[in-house]
Specification:
Blueprint: H1 2-14, H2 29-37, H3 42-47, E1 52-53, E2 64-65, H4 86-91, H5 95-119, H6 154-169, E3 192-196, E4 210-211, H7 216-223, H8 225-232, E5 238-241, E6 245-246, E7 249-250, H9 255-265, E8 271-274, H10 294-303, H11 317-322, H12 328-344, H13 367-380, E9 382-386, E10 398-401, H14 408-411, H15 425-432, E11 438-441, E12 450-454, E13 459-460, E14 468-473, E15 490-494, E16 498-501, E17 518-526, E18 531-540, E19 542-547, E20 550-556, E21 559-568, E22 573-581, E23 589-599, H16 602-608, E24 614-620, E25 637-638, E26 641-642, H17 649-660, E27 665-670, E28 686-689, H18 697-705, H19 738-741, E29 759-761, E30 765-769, E31 772-781, E32 787-796, E33 807-816, E34 821-828, E35 834-837, E36 842-845, E37 848-855, E38 863-870
Helix pairs in contact: 2-12, 5-6, 5-13, 6-8, 13-18, 15-18, 16-17
Length: 871
């Protein structure tokens, strides 16, 4: 009997793992994933492969939504700290601070997730898997989404992106995973490197565009390094494939990208997910058209390694298996990865086991995080030009004008959260300057010689007073069906222009839910004159505008200043209806107004500013103009991309009028891209680049203008003089692009940034220590004000005539007091000497003669050189 028992035990040891292992929280995430997938039916497996993953109650699998955003703070989920846009963070050249930003962001994400779980099943933007960072290379300043990235340089992007991933996923700053018996069992969050790969516009044709004829040099030297760093160095848990094709194959069905490079070359083990509805592009008419139908499309995507779809097309995988287009074993591979990730996050286990669930909700939008947002905004500001006017003298009278002077929404960028408050440049200067020392002139537009004056006073609600009748239903109703016969659950009068948001968990009206509601606003407008009336709206959610019962505009998640123009007749009354659907969890907003388009009166502007000693012009662009696949009916913009990089002519006219009036001007440029801020276009004594600076942007810019903070930001991308300097936007070849390959003279070089003090660079020295080169750079603050300097180190290969002029390979931001010196030390590893090797077709440490360049920017006038030789 004993012998039989021993035999049975030995046989049991050779059997497959018990299906019940998935219930054992002490087992590894992979073991648990393999175990639970064995218990699933094919339809259950497929239901887990869409971003809106269904619950499987019999196995204890909860509903989960994989789609969450945290580009610069938790996004689209109500209250959150809003940090500067990533391009601004890149300008800090402070990757440690970026790590702090995303540690704060992951704290807020975990706290918000915990509250969301207590309130019901998780909706979109309430989960633990965040689709950030965007580490595409900003190869061309016309790309509308470039401000979501960390600039044009692969090394800077790699450093910044690595900090983002480590902050989100809960790694220690020292760079490794937690280790040891006291390490957290679960990951804090999962980050996602996107959009893989060779992706940076154009936005208008991204669903059909084919990035082709790209050299191996450009692929491995420019487009892949940041992704490789995030996979190999930061252990990023997700990678999102891009919309466009690469060499004829959709990126989400590219065997070369997803298998050959990502998994085989780099050894990536995590999840690959599609950009949203990108799988539809495989077969829908007018798009890529590489597959005949949905079943073939999903089979190709999963076979080549796209595990998770943002969209709904993967439901066709059951049909694809039945038709023999893909095996169920291949689907198992993807579902195991998905379930392993959920176990890694503790999402499948009791909260008592997951240490991250203890983070209190008080961290969300906290004062501490607000201070960090202000610190980042300050460090991001780049002083491009200063003829001595800055910092402003105390006691002078200051004029403030420009489209971005008092625009809080512009400062939030895109993919944003909603802060408790936002400081604009106007509000900050109003608070900081003595009463009577600030003159603010409103009414300047970004792109037009007109301003819009509200006609809200000419509306009439059912009570006979100006305003709208507002009706709400705490459920989603199709906008075509919303009418007064629906018995609204909430009715009230809207007596001010519609400017509503659920930010901070504040309901729109008593009795209205935070999310999932529908609304109807009705009024009658009587035109005071025969003129064009502009309707503007900004939404988080979906809206429809009807005039006299006719639908004239429909859109969602948009920012537009003139979405529709009505040719009104004097004395005629118009019935106006706005319907709204809050479809994005507990995050909803609607800003709606309409009014007369009044021509810009330059004489009036200069007259109002005549007594000012200095005029600050807050100009530039807006996320309403540059962004993702946008519908913007403005000259010079297409699909969110820019067609030209020059400053809009309407702003140039105001600046010219100020110059003719003899005004001294300080120009503050808010944009997510490089603008051709030449002296001819911008006749100003000083120029500041402020990016989209987040909730504390006004305070930060005001502090720089008034000398309360010494700017130290540096440009993470080249500023060109003219659109004519740029190659064809659709050409992905790197020739004549970015500081590494540009043949002309830039307006402002990559790495450029001035200070209110001066820094002197001494003679650097290099010592060989093992495989590394130890570089020491003496730097001294020779001015009379404390300040920050970013010491930049570049490598050049004089033997490579086809390669880049130089490549950034290290940097450090330092702070020095007046007269203080520092020896800034760098240890350059073999990997930092990586250079494209045409004989092997990849990046390898260069051999032979080389040059180490160091200084304050990529401009050769600001660099010193140390020769080196590598064996």
């Amino acid at each position: 009997m004993k012998k039989i028992s021993v035999i049975l035990c030995a046989l049991a040891a050779t059997l497959p793992m018990s299906a019940q292992i998935y219930k054992d929280h002490t087992a590894s995430p992979h073991e648990r994933a393999v175990s639970i997938v064995k218990e699933m039916t094919l339809p259950e497996k497929v239901s887990l492969m869409k971003h809106e993953s269904a619950a499987v109650p019999r196995l204890g699998i909860k509903q989960y939504n994989w789609w969450n955003e945290a580009l610069h703070g938790v996004a689209r989920a109500g209250l959150a700290t809003v940090f500067p846009q990533p391009i601004g963070m890149a300008a800090t050249f402070d990757d440690r601070m970026v790590y702090d930003v995303f540690t704060a962001t992951s704290d807020e994400a975990r706290a918000k997730n915990q509250v969301a779980k207590q309130n019901g099943p998780l909706q979109i933007y309430q989960g633990l898997t965040f689709w950030t960072p965007n580490v595409n290379i900003y190869r061309d300043p016309r790309w509308g989404r470039g401000h979501e990235t960390y600039g044009e340089d692969p090394y800077l992007t790699s450093r910044m992106g690595t900090s983002v991933v480590r902050g989100l996923q809960g790694d220690s700053y020292e760079g490794g995973r937690y280790s040891g018996s006291d390490s957290p069992k679960y990951h804090k969050l999962h980050a996602c490197a996107k959009h893989f790969a060779v992706h940076s516009g154009p936005e208008w044709n991204r669903h059909s565009y084919n990035a082709e004829n790209i050299s191996l040099r450009d692929l491995y030297e420019t487009y892949l390094p940041a992704f490789k760093a995030l996979v190999e160095d930061a252990d990023v848990k997700e990678v999102m494939c891009a919309y466009n094709r690469y060499e004829g194959e959709p990126c989400c069905g590219s065997n070369r990208l997803l298998n050959g490079i990502l998994r085989d070359e780099w050894g990536y083990k995590g999840i690959v997910l599609s950009d949203c509805w990108a799988i539809n592009d495989f077969y829908e008419p007018g798009r890529h058209g590489t597959e005949p139908d949905a079943a073939h499309a999903v089979a190709t995507a999963v076979r080549t390694g796209t595990d998770l779809e943002c969209g709904q097309t993967y439901g066709n995988l059951v049909e694809a298996v039945e038709k023999g287009l893909i095996s169920e074993e291949t689907i198992d591979r993807s579902v195991i990865r998905l379930m392993e990730a959920r176990y890694e996050l503790g999402e499948m286990d009791d909260d008592s086991l997951v240490e991250w669930t203890k983070i209190p909700y008080s961290v969300v939008g906290s004062a501490e995080h607000g201070k960090l947002a202000e610190k980042v905004a300050r460090e991001s500001i780049v002083l491009l030009k200063n003829d001595g006017i800055l910092p402003l003298r105390k006691g002078i009278k200051v004029g403030l004008v420009g489209p971005n002077a008092n625009d809080s929404i512009m400062q939030w960028g895109n993919y944003n959260g909603f802060p408790t408050s936002t400081s604009t440049l106007y509000s900050a200067l109003r608070d900081k300057l003595p009463e009577g020392n600030l003159v603010f002139v409103d009414g300047i537009d970004h792109t037009a010689d007109i301003s819009v004056q509200s006609h809200f006073a000419n509306t009439c609600a059912s009570n006979g007073k100006p305003g709208f009748d507002a009706y709400y239903w705490n459920r989603w109703i199709d906008s075509n069906d919303i009418n007064l016969k629906e018995n609204p659950e909430v009715t009230y009068s809207q007596t001010t222009p519609i400017n509503l948001t659920t930010s901070g968990a504040i309901v729109w009206a008593p009795g209205v839910n935070l999310g999932g509601f529908s609304g109807l606003f009705k009024t009658t407008f009587t035109a005071p004159a025969t003129e064009e009336i502009a309707f503007s709206m900004q939404t988080q959610g979906y809206m429809t505008l009807r005039i006299d019962g006719k639908c004239v505009f429909r859109g969602g998640n948009m920012k537009s200043k003139r979405a529709y123009v009505l040719k009104a007749e004097k004395g005629r009354s118009y019935d106006i209806e706005v319907t709204f659907n809050a479809t994005e969890g507990d995050c909803a907003s609607l800003n709606f107004d309409f009014g007369s388009q009044k021509p810009l009166d330059l004489a009036s502007v200069t007259e109002q500013l005549k007594d000012c000693d200095v005029v600050i012009f807050a100009g530039g662009l807006s996320p309403m103009l540059e962004g993702e696949e946008m519908q913007v009916a403005v000259k010079g913009f297409r699909g969110g991309d820019r067609e030209i990089i020059e400053l809009p002519e309407s702003q140039q006219r105001v600046l010219d009028a100020l110059a003719k009036a003899g005004k001294r001007v300080v120009y503050v440029n808010y944009s997510g891209s490089a603008v051709a801020l030449t002296d001819e276009a911008v006749p100003a004594e000083a120029v500041l680049q402020a990016w989209y600076p987040g909730q504390a942007g006004g305070e930060a810019v005001a502090d720089v203008l008034l000398g309360e903070y010494n700017p130290g930001g540096k440009l993470p991308l080249t500023f060109y003089k003219s659109t004519s300097d740029l190659p064809d936007f659709e050409d992905y070849n790197m020739t004549n692009r970015t500081y590494r390959y540009f043949k002309g003279e830039p307006l402002y070089a990559f790495g450029h940034g001035l200070s209110y003090t001066t820094f002197d660079y001494g003679k650097g020295s290099v010592k060989k220590r093992g495989d590394n080169y130890e570089l020491t750079v003496p730097v001294k603050n020779t001015g009379d004000m404390a300040g920050d300097e970013v010491v930049q180190v570049y490598i050049a290969n004089p033997a490579d005539a086809e390669g880049p002029k130089m490549q950034l390979r290290d940097f450090r931001r330092i702070t020095l007091k007046p007269g203080e010196s520092a020896d800034v030390k760098f240890s350059l590893t073999p990997e930092q000497f990586n250079w494209y090797n045409p004989s092997t077709g990849d990046m390898q440490p260069l051999k032979g003669d080389c040059r180490i360049l160091y200084g304050s920017s990529s401009d050769m006038k600001n660099l010193k050189t140390v020769n080196c030789r590598r064996k």
